[in-house]
């Protein structure tokens, strides 16, 4: 069975499921555009910009690790039926495949608007693209502006609404950025040691040098030599806090902290919300991260 045939079978089966399950869930019926987002920050931005002219859902369930997304047949139908799929190419391989198969004409990759950068591949030997742009609020604001334009192409009558909503989103994100810059302007420790390399954009924006214990994906576990090297760096740089993350096993970061005589604290990369998230939306979680960083980096 070739890929096209497999795809048709999956969609046919899922259409039967959708018919039995009613209109709930991603891709369900509702007023205005149907927008499906790959994971939480994109969902949040799309909800803010789309307002009441768009029905927005996320393919990544609350509490799930966004990197490891696996799509159900119902998810594939949602992707195929959406007026707009908002995703980040390369971040969720399963969604990349579904996009190629089912949503080539309706998909919008936010990567170009986000201005993604490459990061030195300390774990892989190459320079991979860092996908975690949303941890710099100004980049997320730029994605919001571009999203307004994309929605306007699909729904010209909503142009004024999308423009106004994107402007309000930018105002909120620029206010957050101002709080972050002021709160992190004077920190005694400028090395940021995190479970994995998720905080490069945040570090670059606010003047830290990030050291990720694992790579860009939390599944890239370091070897004992790398752990020893990072523990030595923690001691040499006067790092007092090693950051674990929500949704990621803290064991490796806790090992480094114990070896170096440092404590641990939790930062949230905001890839998905969960019961353990320190807030109920992007803005509140970022402000919780700010408070954690101020304490952990000894900021005055």
Keywords summarizing the entry:
single chain; 300 residues; alpha/beta; Rossmann fold; 2 domains; 4-stranded parallel beta sheet; 47% helix; globular
Structural account:
By secondary structure, the protein is α/β, with parallel strands linked by helices. It folds into 2 domains: 3-177, 3-Layer(aba) Sandwich (Rossmann fold); 184-296, Rossmann fold (3-Layer(aba) Sandwich), CATH 3.40.50. It has 11 helices and 10 strands. The chain has helices spanning 3-21, 40-50, 73-81, 93-102, 111-114, 137-154, 159-183, 200-206, 224-236, 251-260, 282-296, and strands at 33-37, 54-58, 84-87, 107-109, 117-118, 129-130, 191-196, 209-214, 241-245, 263-267. The strands form 3 sheets. Strands 2-1-3-4 form a 4-stranded parallel beta sheet, with helices on both faces. α7 runs parallel beside α11 (282-296) and α9 crosses α10.
The rounded Rg comes to 20 Å
The biggest beta sheet is recorded as: 4 strands, parallel
Poorly predicted runs of 5 or more residues? 1-30
Major sheet: arrangement of strands: 2-1-3-4
CATH class of the largest domain: Alpha Beta
Q: What number of structural domains do the residues give?
A: 2
Sheet/helix structural class: alpha/beta
The helix-strand sequence is HEHEHEHEHEEHHEHEHEHEH
Number of helices: 11
């Amino acid at each position: 069975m070739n890929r096209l045939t497999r795809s048709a079978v999956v969609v046919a089966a899922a259409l039967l499921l959708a018919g039995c399950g009613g209109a709930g869930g991603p891709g369900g019926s509702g007023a205005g555009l149907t927008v499906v987002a790959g994971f939480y920050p994109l969902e949040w931005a799309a909800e803010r910009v789309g307002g009441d002219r768009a029905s927005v859902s996320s393919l990544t369930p609350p509490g799930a690790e966004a990197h490891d997304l696996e799509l159900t047949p119902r998810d594939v139908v949602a992707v195929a039926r959406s007026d707009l799929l908002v995703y980040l190419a390369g971040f969720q391989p399963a969604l990349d495949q579904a996009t190629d198969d089912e949503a080539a004409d309706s998909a919008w990759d936010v990567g170009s608007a986000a201005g993604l950068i490459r990061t030195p591949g300390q774990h892989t030997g190459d320079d991979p693209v860092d996908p975690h742009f949303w941890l710099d609020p100004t980049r997320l604001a730029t994605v919001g502006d571009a999203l307004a334009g994309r929605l306007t192409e699909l729904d010209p009558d909503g142009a004024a609404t999308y423009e106004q909503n994107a402007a309000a989103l930018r105002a909120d994100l620029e206010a957050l950025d101002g709080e972050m810059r002021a709160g992190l302007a004077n920190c005694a420790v400028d090395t940021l040691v995190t479970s994995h390399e998720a905080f490069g954009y945040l570090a670059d924006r606010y003047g830290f040098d990030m050291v990720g214990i694992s790579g860009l994906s939390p599944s890239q576990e370091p070897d004992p030599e790398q752990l020893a090297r990072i523990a030595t760096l923690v001691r040499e740089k006067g790092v007092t806090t090693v950051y674990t993350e929500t949704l990621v096993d803290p064991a490796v970061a806790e090992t480094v902290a114990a070896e170096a005589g440092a404590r641990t604290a939790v930062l949230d990369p905001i890839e998905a919300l969960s019961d353990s998230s320190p807030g109920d939306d992007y803005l509140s979680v970022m402000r919780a991260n700010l408070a954690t960083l101020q304490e952990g980096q000894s900021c005055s």
